[in-house]
């Protein structure tokens, strides 16, 4: 629990109430929001559907033909699965605001690093080793690029990526840095979060209009509305009648759907993989905001099944490994053994979930608390 230092006022100067000088303490949280864990997994499965059946490229080589041929009807739906990333960002805004409230900067850094790095390092190593095997037709990165990938800085350094999904982690890391600098460091309060959301929203719009690479890099205009919307929904979770928070959510939804449609809309064309209509994009974005809002308002407390906690724990390692290792699995099952398309799809998803469980059980279970304890320990302490 963090608090700001309170200076002693001179005797002849009236002091303000103590609460005006201290960051707000987080409200006591109830039971784990298991529905949020379920939504995480749903978003990850949407992205997996996109990677296995909603696009061309390397996955077409794995199938032996375009997923459009493998899934003549479903590929149109799978093509919308890329929007699972935007849902992830809304969830992230909510969770980071909730978990960062009342933390010191050291504690926040330890929490984020211990959560992200163990499975990430394991996934980078695993994919590199698998791609280096002689039977695997996909090319492994160079030793130097592999080492850079361990830093999570491969995107800004322009290095070949081991994990295709790491671009989303780069967006997450930038969000964490902004949140830590503007909220965690001075101490989280409702007013600071509201101001941060307002300034970031305006700054992102200015960055988009200015067409400045530096501003785009820092303020991420195409993703900012989703992180900001998630933070607004956490404020709603704290106070359901907070009209300012609802305003933050509304503006974030309005601008977020704009960026999603602008970046992801695909008109009907025989030259494009799939028709991705604007109304469908808006519907998926709306679903993401509405689902997190329902959780924030307590409307999904009934979804309190224990297995959702496990589902949430598997989401991150599944997300890391599913794409590139999925190519290998699809090629092995479908082209190697002639397993039908839908069965290959289901077996690949199941296999990646099983691998995610192994990473959670044998990597995260010990490495996460170990890193959190070591990184959270003050310098020089025993």
TrEMBL record:
Statement: the UniProt record of this protein carries the keyword Membrane: yes
One GO MF term: acyltransferase activity, transferring groups other than amino-acyl groups
Domain Acyltransferase: from-to ranges: 35-360
Chain ranges passing through the membrane: 35-53, 77-99, 120-141, 161-186, 193-211, 217-236, 243-261, 273-298, 305-322, 342-359
InterPro entries: Acyl_transf_3_dom (IPR002656), Acyltransferase_3 (IPR050879)
Region of interest (Disordered), residue spans: 1-29
Top-rank taxon, per record: Bacteria
GO CC terms, sorted: membrane
Keywords: Acyltransferase, Membrane, Transferase, Transmembrane, Transmembrane helix
One example of a Gene Ontology biological process annotation: lipopolysaccharide biosynthetic process
Record's protein name: Acyltransferase
Species per Swiss-Prot/TrEMBL record: Streptomyces mesophilus
């Amino acid at each position: 629990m963090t608090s700001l230092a309170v200076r002693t006022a001179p005797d002849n100067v009236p002091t303000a109430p103590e609460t005006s000088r201290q960051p707000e303490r987080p409200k006591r949280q109830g039971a784990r929001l298991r529905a949020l864990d379920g939504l995480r997994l749903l978003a990850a499965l949407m992205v997996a559907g996109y990677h296995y059946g909603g696009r061309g490229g390397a996955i077409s080589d794995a199938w032996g033909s375009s997923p459009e041929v493998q899934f003549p009807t479903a590929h149109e739906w799978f093509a919308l699965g890329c929007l699972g990333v935007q849902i992830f960002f809304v969830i992230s805004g909510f969770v980071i605001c909730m978990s960062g409230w009342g933390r010191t900067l050291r504690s926040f850094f330890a929490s984020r690093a211990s959560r992200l790095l163990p499975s990430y390092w394991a996934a980078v190593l695993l994919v590199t080793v698998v791609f280096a095997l002689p039977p695997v037709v996909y090319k492994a990165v160079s030793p130097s690029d592999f080492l850079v990938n361990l830093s999570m800085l491969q995107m800004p350094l322009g290095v070949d990526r081991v994990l295709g999904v790491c671009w989303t982690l780069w967006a997450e890391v930038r969000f964490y840095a902004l949140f830590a600098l503007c909220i965690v460091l001075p101490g989280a309060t409702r007013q600071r979060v509201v101001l941060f959301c307002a300034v970031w929203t305006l700054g992102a719009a200015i960055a988009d209009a200015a067409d400045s690479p530096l501003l785009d890099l820092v303020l991420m205009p195409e993703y900012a509305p989703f992180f900001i919307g998630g933070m607004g929904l956490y404020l709603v979770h704290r106070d359901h009648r907070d009209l300012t928070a609802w305003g933050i959510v509304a503006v974030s939804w309005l601008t977020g759907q704009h960026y999603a449609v602008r970046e992801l809309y695909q008109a009907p064309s025989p030259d494009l993989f799939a028709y991705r209509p604007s109304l469908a994009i808006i519907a998926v974005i709306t679903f993401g905001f509405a689902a997190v809002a329902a959780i924030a308002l307590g409307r999904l407390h009934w979804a309190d099944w224990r297995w959702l906690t496990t589902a949430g724990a598997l989401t991150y390692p599944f997300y890391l490994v599913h794409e590139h290792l999925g190519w290998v699995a699809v090629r092995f099952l479908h082209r190697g053994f002639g397993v039908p398309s839908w069965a290959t799809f289901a077996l690949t998803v199941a296999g990646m979930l099983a691998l995610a469980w192994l990473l959670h059980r044998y990597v995260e279970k010990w490495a996460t608390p170990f890193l959190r304890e070591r990184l959270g320990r003050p310098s020089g302490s025993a």
